[in-house]
Task: structure prediction
Amino acid sequence: MLVNSKNKRKAATEQVSELTTGRLSVYLRCLNQLEADGVETISSQTLAERFHLNAAQIRKDLAYFGEFGVRGVGYYVKDLKLHLRQILGLDRKLKVAVMGAGNLGMALADYPGFRREGFEIVAMFDSADGKIGEESRGGVPIHDIRDIRKVLKKERVDIVVLAVPAEAAQHVLDQVAGSGVKAVLNFSPGTLLVPEGIKLKSVDLTVSLESLSFFLAQGDPTS
Amino acid sequence: MLVNSKNKRKAATEQVSELTTGRLSVYLRCLNQLEADGVETISSQTLAERFHLNAAQIRKDLAYFGEFGVRGVGYYVKDLKLHLRQILGLDRKLKVAVMGAGNLGMALADYPGFRREGFEIVAMFDSADGKIGEESRGGVPIHDIRDIRKVLKKERVDIVVLAVPAEAAQHVLDQVAGSGVKAVLNFSPGTLLVPEGIKLKSVDLTVSLESLSFFLAQGDPTS
DNA sequence: TTTTGTGAACTAGTTCACAGCT
DNA sequence: AGCTGTGAACTAGTTCACAAAA
Result:
């Protein structure tokens, strides 16, 4: 298992696109399902057909990281799954903290999809007296947002989820950066100045919804 | 106001990229802030500097839809705002329904950012007896998911937000499609077969978090 | 024979740079 | 003089198509 004789991982200088890495997550999810279905080996062609992907793209995406396939056969599901988990850094348990214990923060802290993929939500933060000291429904403790630095360091948090109101987002982000966390998933809308050394990934719910509004306005002149 | 003498909107055949439409939302948000700050006119250059965008790209994105600027001056903030709202279809109130009254569905139904941009959340749906007939904290009524068709038609819902568990997503999506709704914002993970005539936009929380995990695993070999 | 891994061709998206309008 | 709107140049991303491996 984990055969990778020709270790041809791309040089650190070469940038793997975010589109590629997003797809790696998708492939991993497909493989999980295939494994559950008892499939042992799969070709890029079959994988593509089954999940509406492009076979050449699957091969190219994987080829950035090594030669995981067997010509004439395809990919061993179990083997490729392990490789993908390793590439995505999911082979160790990553600790996550959620900033903001509002509706959205609470929902994200207890989101089953995160736990299922091996993330561990270890802390939440808020500034409201009524919330500090309490827990999410799923049992994640809510800390005082003024203790960011202390708690993030103590808990050795890897990734922060930012779900605070827009006006607080920049300040909280700066605090998070100061505590040594390197990666932030941001749900607050608007422009943020990204501190040095931070990888920020933003999910903008309003933009997503407005892009559907655009589609309705342009594509579909009825109603 | 709304001067657009040379109405040079692109032909319906021409596809405007989703990257472009996403940026239009962003520009609109920037303009809202500028207006609040009392700025009356702005050049693409200044807009770009202020919000970390690219000036040529702003001009090109806008140029798909008309000539909104004044040479030597820039854009009138109020005027461009109105144009963008119209392009994005935000000049009428869009009605939204949320499928799934779990943590995430509830949070989305009460998400203030949606209301702020003029969306109206009119209904939620769930299958749990304990939830049907209740309301979200913000007062959105929860219907029986078996009444999808009836309620969506009666309320004239424009956009559906899908926040049901992955195993239910396809079935609910098919129901939604059957009730005439044309646009769906999907939060459930995994592959969906998109019914004819539906525009599906997916936000995949797990993929977003995993892309940060990838960054930590690859980019940052410490820890 | 089957299917990978990959250069080459193609398509999409971004940025430059400047003519032309105000 | 200043700034837009836009072709041209460039960069990134996708798909094709096939030689080479099993």
